[in-house]
Each structure stands twice: as structure tokens, then as C-alpha cells.
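Morning!

This is the sequence you dropped in the shared folder:
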Amino acid sequence: MQVSRPWFGSWPKDLLRELGLEAQPLYKLLENPSARTPGKTCLLYQGRSLTYAQVDELASRFAAGLLSLGLVKGDRVALFMPNIPQFVASYFGTLKAGGVVVPCSPLYKEKELEYQLRDSGAAFMVAASDIVGGSDLYASLEKCRDRLKLKAVITASVTDYLPGLKRQLAGLKGVKKVRRRDTVRFTELVARSQPLGESASVDPKRDVAVLQYTGGTTGVSKGAMLSHSNLYLNAFQTAAVLPLVASDVALAALPFFHIYGMTTAMNAPLSVGCSIVIVPRFEVEPVMATIEKEKVTSFCGVPTMYIAVINHPSVSKFNLRTVRSCISGGAALPVAVRKRFIELTGSALVEGYGLTEASPVTHVNPVGAGAVVKDGSIGIPVSDTDSAIVAMDDRSNFLGIGEVGELAVKGPQVMLGYWNRREESDQVLKDGWLLTGDIARMDEQGFFFIVDRKKDMIDVSGFKVWPREVEEVLFTHPGVREASVVGVADDYRGESVKAFVVLKPESKGKVSEKDVIAFCRERISSYKAPRSVVFVDDLPKTLVGKVLRRELRDR
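The structure's back. C-alpha cells below.
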């Protein structure tokens, strides 16, 4: 069926409808600017500057190091660390060696990490050897390592690439001295390895570059197979809509392990040769100071970041007016937040949309002088991308303007499928279209609006939380008889997790809300744990015993 494209009537005059780019290996995002401008600053990290040539050499040395450890083409390499220079070098080094990157959340605990490493079949891992933000990342790995088939672990410290004085002041506090067979420090591996002469030969459209884990549209955590071409082209699609040029300074406050941060804060800036300011973790006052000091021009984030900025008591003390463009994603952006942020910075903060299965960016409100921006809308499709609304009961039936149905997208950024899950892949990929699982409508100007979630997924600051995963933990509490979890509106996080719990008779009056929340936080990532718990006598159910989540939400 021919897709109508009313969004072309709202198309920015300076943006190409088709970028006309050929697919290339993803590592070219680093190699190409390194060849053009080797002395240009690529990464700024806590006052340390690394040029494009230096970062590319680190990646090439890391690639050679992986090959010396026994990597063969297609091996999966897991990255388990915060935003530090080693993430960028390991990411592109893995690709140069012919490996597949498997990003892991630094928030993962033992059980979550083991599942992802086992499901992906990771052969190598780069893990932070520090206690980061109170989390002992290496301890989470060590607890499950003996049950996995890892050939080697490479450890990286947040202090490795600090400027000399800062590194001395940081000392070795919180840094683990790991002495174990098949374990080597990142700095030692790159020091002993000569730069790789020639990067691996890959088929950009068929070879997987990144296995990005997601709850997807069917609820089970699985790896979206993103090809070199998917991510390479989405980097340029994103850079075009911001728009980014080589003179820009991009703030990497979003985590690189998350597909949103990977594309908007790392790949897109690299595609045009930007300088990237790395922030290991988002802390509002240091981030504002960094924006002022480094004259940041691009700041992509999630609504919680912008909310933190506009509500900070010292915001007026910082000059944030160098910020020119921002895309907010991961959750709905409140209109009042957008307007206040624009008042403070003069930037073009707009809402966009994407999902892991699309690398992730598919829609953005237009940026630039005279651009049409609609509050509450995710915008229009990016270059080279089609979008449509399809009927829920017949996905071959494309609906018209104003009709509500499932959002579908089509473009070069759409994944190859889910790792080792053909059935689930077939459920969401239909004739080149990706069925997103989100309910939406399109207006007469081609702007799309998300109406509701198809499933019960909870979106906490851009992180997907599936109720069943939280419920499984709740059911292991000795005092809990039944439990159900729903997402509730949260002005700061977009949504937060709320649990309805039926206690066992002997536990009533003895187990508190605080007890249940603490119990969950010890077993799953903090963003997945309930922020509120309501004790009830029973849960509303259907005749067959299925819990009525909608009724719980209505309460």
C-alpha cells in the first residue's frame, strides 16, 4: 500500500528528505573523521583531551589486543562500564576486530548481568573495576563469572584517563586490584598491542554490530540485532535533524550503554567530527558547570535531566545559552518543562521518539528557524524513514489521519531481528515495517502523537521496566502472598513503579512499605524497584484469575 506522507508539508527547508548515504562499517564513524582531522579533539573527559587520532589508535590497539586473546569474527564482547573513554575505544575496537558489541547496564545486578551474558553468548567482557555511584560493578560480574564461558575479562578504571593531577588525587580508592587468570587491565592490553593494520571486513547490511538488549514489544528481555548499516545510517539521520556540524560540542550525559545515548551522544557527534564532553554520571550542578565551561552546543537527554536543570536553585548562576539544540526522548516531555528550559537556555529543545529496534531514532520535531514544533507530539519521521498507523486487528490495514492504531516505522535503521528469537522477530517485522507496540495517531500535517502503550511496559526515565520481572522478586519475599505492579505518572521520571501487595496473614502489620522497597532494591536495579507500595486485601482479577492491571491503575 502506498504510504501518504503529509509530513513533507512540514519538512524543514534545510533538511534533506533522503540523505543519499551508502552503508559502511560502523567503525568508519571513528576512522573517517580521524583521517580528515586527526588533531581535532574527539573526547573531553574530566579535563583530559583526546584527539580523534588518539582515540582511533586506542580502538585499533584494543582490536589487536582482542585478537591476541583469541577473538574470532562474530564473537560477542560485553561492555559493562559507565561513560569513560574506554567505552568508546572498546566499542569501536570490538567492531574493528570483527566482534559484536553487547552493552550492559552498569545498574545490573548479578542475576540480570548473568542472563544477558548467557543469552548473548559473550566471549569477552570489558568491566569497570571501580565502585561507581555506590555500585560495585566488578563484584556483580565476579558473582556469576564462574558460571559463564568468558574467554577473558578486561578491566577498566574511571581513573585511567584522568589528567595527571586528578588521577593522583583520585588515587586508588575504590579501584579493585584484580589478580585473576584470564583477566587483564585495559591499559596493559593496549600498551602491549600494536595498532591493527586493517579493520575487519564486514557486510554492513547483514553483519551484526551491536546486540542491544531490550524488553522490546513482547515483554521478554532479548537482543535486538542492529547491523553496522542500521547504526551507521541512524547516526547521520540523527546528526542531520539536530543538526550537528564539526564545530559543535556535544554533551554525553546520556549513558553510552543505552541505545539512545549510544546514537545521540556518541555515534551522531562522531559522524560529523564533533567534540564530545563525557559525563560519567548525570549530576545536575556539575553538568551545568560543564556546559558553561566547555561551551556545549548539543545536549540530548531525557525529561528528568531537563526537569533537574530548570528546578535547580542555582540555575541562574550558570551560562547555558551556548546550548543550541536538544532532543528529549525516552519518555513524554512535559510542555511546561520544555518552555522553561527554552527560556533559560534559548535552545531548541524538542521531543523525539525512537526504540531500540530502530537504532533508535525514528521521529523528531523539526529544529531550526521557522520550524513547526507541536507540544505533546513526537514529531515527524527523520530522513529516509516512513511511518504509518496500522489497525490493531489487521496490521495490513493502514489507517487514515486522526485514526488511532499501532505505530509502524520503516527505514534503514530498523533492526535485522531479535537474537535467536525468530518467532518474536516475525511478530514485529512485517514486510519491512517495524511494529513498535505503541498506540498512536497522526494529524493532518504528519505529526505523530503517542496515545498509549500497547503492553504493560513501564517507562522510567527512558528505561523499560516489565511488571513481571518486578513481581517475580516480590513473590520471593517471605511475607508476600500476591503482588501486581503497574506504572503510574511521575512528573520527574515520566513513570514510576507502583506495587500492590497482598501480605500473608501472619505478616500483616509486620512488613512495611519501606521493607518491601528495600527488599527489591537489593535484588534488582533501583529504577525497577517500586517507589511506592500499597497493601491491599486482594487483587482484582478476571474469571480465569488474570490480574486486572487497568483497574489497579484506575485506583
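Headline: Residues 458-554 form a domain with the GMP Synthetase; Chain A, domain 3 fold (CATH 3.30.300.30).

More detail when I'm at my desk.
O.
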